[in-house]
Amino acid sequence: MVRILLVCSAGMSTSFMVNKMKDSAKEKGIEAEIWAVAEAEAADNIGKADIMMLGPQVRFLEGKMKALAGDKPVTVIDMMAYGSMNGAKVLDQALGLLGME
């Protein structure tokens, strides 16, 4: 089971990405829990996640989120993949950082 936390400014557009990523995980036979929260809720959620991915619109929070996450990976979602809502590519990005590809 892989647990992927997405963080954005309000949680709206990223919820579409969550659904796309879940669909991709299902197609690949990967058991995954993927959810999105607003920046203000990140601290309450990082403990349950294996990786934190930031929406491109909040990339300026990367340093702050890395400090919050401790030894868990934190990355910014590829802007092109986010813009095209390519859930498979974003899932692959997360799995690559976790060494699970």
Describe this entry's structure for a reader.
The protein is of the alpha/beta class and 101 residues long. 44% of the residues lie in helices and 21% in strands. It is built from 5 helices and 4 strands. The chain has a 4-stranded parallel β-sheet, with helices on both faces. Helix 1 (13-28) crosses helix 5 (87-97). The longest helix is centred in the first third of the chain and has 16 residues, at 13-28. The protein is globular.
Low-confidence segments, given as residue ranges, are none
**How far is the first residue's CA from the last residue's CA?**
13 Å
Helix content: 40-55%
Number of beta strands: 4
Sequence of strands across the biggest β-sheet: 2-1-3-4
Order of helices and strands: EHEHEHEHH
The backbone outline, from C-alpha atoms, is globular
Q: What does the largest sheet look like?
A: 4 strands, parallel
Count of separate DSSP helical elements = 5
Mean pLDDT: 95
Features:
single chain, 101 residues, globular
Which SSEs are present, and which pair or pack?
Elements: E1 2-8, H1 13-28, E2 32-38, H2 42-45, E3 51-54, H3 62-69, E4 74-76, H4 79-83, H5 87-97
Parallel strand pairs: 1-2, 1-3, 3-4
State the gist of this model:
The protein is built from five helices and four strands, in the order E-H-E-H-E-H-E-H-H.
